[in-house]
């Protein structure tokens, strides 16, 4: 009985961890490829876009990889802006 109970607890914890990690990644990242901006600040969007090697089109940033996406979000926040993305 102890073995079954401990196995059930471990499975429950593992399931909870998967659900929580899936939920946090869904809120932080857009599906790729995506176009993003840093708030309403065109200059900060351009700077963040160029710093991560993404495609600047004059108004938004074209992001095609997870690395670019994560870096762009971090750069926007460092520039005190809230990133917004869409596909």
Question: Can you tell me about this structure?
Answer:
Residues 1-21 form the signal peptide. With 87 residues, this protein is of the alpha+beta class. The chain folds into 2 domains: 1-29; 31-86, Alpha-Beta Plaits (2-Layer Sandwich). It has helices at residues 2-28, 42-51, 66-78, and strands spanning 34-38, 55-56, 61-63, 83-86. The chain has a 4-stranded antiparallel sheet. Helix 2 crosses helix 3. The chain is globular, with a radius of gyration of 18 Å. Residues 7-27 have low confidence and may be disordered.
Q: Helix fraction?
A: 55-70%
Overall SS class: alpha+beta
- Quickly count the helices: 3
Order of neighbouring strands in the sheet with most strands: 2-3-1-4
Fraction of residues in β-strands: 15-25%
User: What is the CATH fold-level name of the largest domain?
Assistant: Alpha-Beta Plaits
The ordered H/E elements are HEHEEHE
* Chain-averaged pLDDT: 78
| Low-pLDDT runs | 7-27
CATH architecture of the largest domain: 2-Layer Sandwich
What characteristic shape results from the CA principal axes?
Answer: globular
Number of DSSP E strands: 4
Task: Determine the CATH superfamily of the largest domain.
Answer: Killer toxin KP6 alpha-subunit
CATH class of the largest domain: Alpha Beta
Q: Determine Rg (CA atoms, Å).
A: 18 Å
Q: What is the total number of structural domains?
A: 2
Spatial separation of the terminal alpha carbons: 51 Å
Keywords: Signal
Signal peptide: 1-21
Summarize the structure.
By secondary structure, this protein is of the alpha+beta class. Helices cover 57% and strands 16% of the residues. The chain is globular and about 60 Å long.
């Amino acid at each position: 009985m102890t073995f079954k109970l401990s196995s059930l607890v471990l499975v429950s914890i593992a399931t909870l961890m998967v659900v929580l990690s899936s939920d946090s990644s869904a809120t932080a990242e857009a599906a790729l490829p995506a176009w993003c901006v840093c708030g309403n600040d065109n200059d900060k969007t351009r700077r963040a876009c160029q710093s991560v090697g993404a495609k600047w089109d004059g108004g938004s940033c074209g992001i095609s990889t997870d690395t670019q996406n994560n870096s762009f979000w971090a750069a926007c926040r460092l520039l005190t802006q809230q990133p917004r993305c869409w596909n």
